[in-house]
Amino acid sequence: MAYTGVTPSARSRGMVRESRHLLFTVAPGATWIVIFLVLPSAYLMGVAFMTNGPYGLPEMPLSLESFRRLAGFGFLGWSPGNLYTLLRSLWQTLVSTGLVVVVAYPIAYYISTCRARWRPIMLLLVVVPSWTNQVIRTFGWMNLLAPGTPLSNLAESLGFIAPNMGLYPSNFAVTLGLVYNFLPFMVLPLYAAFEKLDTAQVEAAQDLFASPVRAFWHAVFPQTLPGLLAGIVLVAIPAFGMYVIPELLGGGKGMMLGNLVANQFAGGANWPLGAAGAILMLIATFVGLFAMRRIGKRLGGGEEVVI
Amino acid sequence: MSDTIATEATESPGARPAGETTQAEATREASSIEMKGLHKRFGRDTVALDGVDLTIEPGEFFTLLGPSGCGKTTLLRILAGLEEADDGRLAIGGRDITEVPPHKRSVNTVFQSYALFPHLSVRENLAFGLKMRGMSPARREARVAKIAEFIQLGDLVDRRIDQLSGGQRQRIALARALVNEPDVLLLDEPLSALDAGLRSQLQVELLRVQKRLGMTFVFVTHDQQEAMVMSDRIAVLNGGVIQQVGPPRQVYEHPVNAFVARFMGHDNLYPITARDGDRLTTSLGELTAEEAGQGELLLIRPETLDLLPGEVAGENHLPAVVSERLYRGSHAEYRLEIGASTLQATLNNRGRHLPEVGDRVTVSVAPEDLVTLSE
Amino acid sequence: MRKRTLKRGLTGFWWFTLAFLYLPLAVVVLFSFNASNSAATFTGISLRWYGRLMGNEEILSAFANSMILAITSSVIALGVGCLIGYGMYRHRHRKLGWLIVLIYLPIVLPDIVFGISEMTFFVQIHRLTGLLQPGLGTMIIAHITFQIPFVALIVYSRFVGLDPTLFEAAKDLYATPVKRVVHFMLPTIKPALISAFFLSFTLSVDDFVISFFTAGPESATLPIYIWGAIKKGVSPEINAIATLMIGAVALAALISLVFSRRRQA
Q1: pTM of the predicted model, to two decimals?
Q2: Cα dihedral sign for B257, B260, B262, B267?
């Protein structure tokens, strides 16, 4: 029988039905996110290019004034305050991420070497504190680091701090708070990497390289790299935009970008300046995600780890 | 095109009150299936079915056989209503059901993965179809008990799905489909996930069930042995086109083309270079066939050959050298060299002499066993 | 032998890290039972701070706000997220990159950017139209926005883990579209739905930053109240309310975990 072609009705009917189904299931949520997140973010980005009005609200005309302010140029000429805040954010992010890696790596390895039935419980123990409200956890550290507490007294007797000062507010307290806050975010992906570790490779490396250090470097470390990268993304991005921890533990000299931005929408209102800071944070977020995705792809199989 | 198909779709089969179909198995009328000009494409270029016309008789065990991607599963899914044909008509039991959705068709499927609902017990799985058709709990229970006895499920009905082995799941899947007493039962490679021993056991069981119920079964497989064991008739598909339809013996012994021959396991195919009536010349030499036909390929089935020791002159006798022998106990498989050509032969082990590798032998074949076919 | 030393060292480090993780919480719990006002010395066990909570109108209303916010937003997010999750599954063979970006956006956006975007948007809409006055309503909207992706991803991954022929088996066994939802899809993803609800609930109760920026003067939640109390000067009552929250959130999260386990099984 000659095949003369497809009757369009059955096919197109099916396609219309599928499209309607997609619309019905996805549209409510997608619309919700567009209206209540995409539009607001787009508006916020627009605000960054507007002029600061009398009550901190944005006004026309468009200008780059807020970016100049962010870089430190104000009415009284240039001052380094904002730049310090930016650099401090970067520095805190770097230091706390590094410390988190240093603590999480051996912990993740240790969990993976324990008996299989204990591992889920051990992971649970690591994760449970992060389920508590961030404000409460930070408040716990305030209690621990306040003047007159054992930790403060110890630091005082060792000469690290002046008498009756306490360990907070300080940059040290912020770093500690960040490490505490993000430790589980690093342990989980690293543990996943260790659990998948190909032990045959490790044993082969132990045969080939006499020293355990070299065996680790050649056989173990490369295999855990995707997990490590995922952990770095999960820690560094939110750390850079952190608000609660520096606000409570840092004091005036511990301010980070998050506080600078937030302050522009509260007391000393300047929406365009805050929005410019938010744009900076967004750029950092997407650059971080993009970079990790690229590196992850090059390492192979890292793609699904990132997102 | 569809005028031979009855189009009295007055009432869809699934819409019948479930009670009316509870007749004794023996008195059930089996249903026929008619397909006319079925076409199906996926995406732009993938042609799954390219004009399928097929009639399946009531009560038949009918097998769709072919390699993966030949369209056999697509055809089965169109019968089930899980896929819509782009073109063509389909009727079951004389009713046109081309546009009837799956849940309104009195057709049930045994899926390759069994597709048992993990959130339900075995008993609830068995009763699912009856419940969906609105049968009362008491009648559902009676029907489930009846089918459980018929398939000899024993205490399996009280287990959870994750407590079942592969073979047990297969039987539950079969029972879950049969309990609905459909007009047609569709089976999508239902035995392919099982190991060889269990598989042949369940082949026999499935065949017995079908014969006792007299229901129309449409079975999909890529295994030609399985198809031959089970089927009343086989349709061999390739590239979305039916190549041959017939009883297993006919398809195996008289394949209509090289594709069917190769798919049924034949390797001894030789182009005919010259013919004089029934005398055919191939690279093996000259052979006489009883009814040569018009095909341009000669098929020699390995089990029709006989091997005589030494050189023996005679009609349809060819001198050959044994290059390989696989001893299999009940029989032995030979690879023979005739000039530049090779020939496969299978010899039953009836206590006679079995030639060794390197032996010179004479191949003998009866004229009535030679078949020609087209490329 | 070196291996054994390494293992012993790691064991020690493990216990040290655990102490580090639980010390701040332990201090909060311990001092909630402190008899004295001091935040530095423990003088004896007392329940007086818990008693004070009961009489504190502000705390009770903050608690009520937290519950209304968490339950309302979780229920709505469950419905909307469940639909998206199913849509993503059913149409997973299509190119849905834009949808994936949209779903991940609330997750990757830094909290502070999320919070101030919504706040500026709500403020301007309110100025223009009088709608969306900052308060519980705006907080519920903001919370739903960050809960939807989690619900959608949990539901989606449950569907992906199913044998796709189950959907066809349900059709084949005479289930109409509505019956497929009621008798097949919903029962099958029930553990995922429970897990998603409790996760949403936990996320909502846990959130501070986004709530802080979208709240109105009358709609302080517990974290916002605690924040204010800390800023005003530490009061031992905070330890008591914080201890109760630690207990409640840990319980909800444990339930979510139990159901996510069952989901995988």
Answers
A1: 0.84
A2: negative
